[in-house]
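Trying the structure run again after the queue cleared.
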Amino acid sequence: MDESGGNGGPQSDGAEGLRPAEPHGPHHAPGSQEPTRPVEPSTDDNRTSLTKTPDTETQRTETQRTETARTEPPRTEASAEERPAEDRRPRAARSGRPGKGTPVPPKAQKGPGGGLLMGKPFGVPVYVAPSWFLVAALITWVFGNQLDRVLPELGGARYLVSLFFAVAFYASVLVHELAHTVAALRFKLPVRRIQLQFFGGVSEIEKESETPGREFVLAFVGPLLSLVLAGVFYAGMQAVDAGTVPGVLLAGLMISNLIVAAFNLLPGLPLDGGRMLRAVVWKITGKPMSGTVAAAWVGRALAISVLIGLPLLNQSGALGGEAQDIGGMDTVTDALLAAILAAIIWTGAGNSLRMARLREHLPELRARTLTRRAVPVESETPLSEALRRANDAGARALVVVDTDGDPMALVREAAIVSVPQHRRPWVGVGGLAQDLTEGMRISAELAGEELLDTLRATPATEYLVVEESGEIYGVLSAADVERAFVKAMARPT
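Done. Tokens:
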């Protein structure tokens, strides 16, 4: 899922949401193991033979590995690179009987809402993050002090007016985000949620736009709505007296929306202007990754400019205030605000680059090419006999089947390597197996984001991979997926 949202900008969810775009570039499909090759202890750290002697790594308990699967991204690796090209289809050594039906991949689970749920406009949940209450209190205090100078007759009631201003301002930010959301839904892009937080809001869009034109429109509608709101508040100012509470509130909301629009139009990721720049470069080069790289580096330059330039502008009075002496409390406050803004922009730009790389390499993760060849065995089969059959078939996984040949459980790799050689003739495979749940049956056609989402929905160490007919295709190890994922991410774009 692409996190390109920022202060008032749309954000796609990715790898926890993994909301990648259509990637470009060749597919590097890993190979598979030769079908008649005996299984021997592997010399490749990324591959583990069923007969490999237990070592420090493989003696981890199943509990530890399952817990890791629950707290980390799906674990995956290309177990395919050593297979010859003509054997890219790792068929299971089957019992001759198909399994029970075609599995339907479970829907990916969504992460926590991230705050207080305020409603679901257009079916999209809107959350208020805990940090919003902090910034609302800050706005109430600052704006209240300003009201004391403009409308001293209000007394303590000025803080109630200031609180109303803080809520109205974030309502304007919500309208900004809803503009992104409506545009995304119009382009059939799913929106996970909208979150109002410390420095504005974020629309978490789970997919990338298919064209640079749509990307540009999706980014531009947010600042456009902020400008429209500024115009509406300006029109309202003409109907009231400037020295009244409504006049001051309307003026403050007009100025704040102008600032939101101007800030988000700055041409650097993760701001809306950065997404617009990305769309332009994408259109010119034909490569979305080139647009992301250009906009992300502009965003980093923008972060440095904010860090240095904002305090200097405030001290010089260029932003409308009085010139300040260097070293006062106002200077420290300006520097702190600039540092926070710069950190947000810098981090968002870096995240955009990482998510773009992820989206580009995700299609390389395919269940069919990562699946290990498997042999079916009955529960009472001794482990030594099951491993002999696996070696004869060139397989690296065991599936426990019933008398009809239907899969019932998967023999855990960690459990196999923990059994000493001299005990294997006396240990049945059924005692080393994990019962199959529906979520542990996955389709051989799964790939990329859909594969990762399916594995996240049901954390496990191994999964049964089946054809559309329900026939056993093999076993997918979560560790293989993790290693393939890391390997793909490390490869240059």
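Residues 1-8, 12-49, 51-113 have pLDDT under 50 and may be disordered. Worth checking whether this holds up in the mutant runs.
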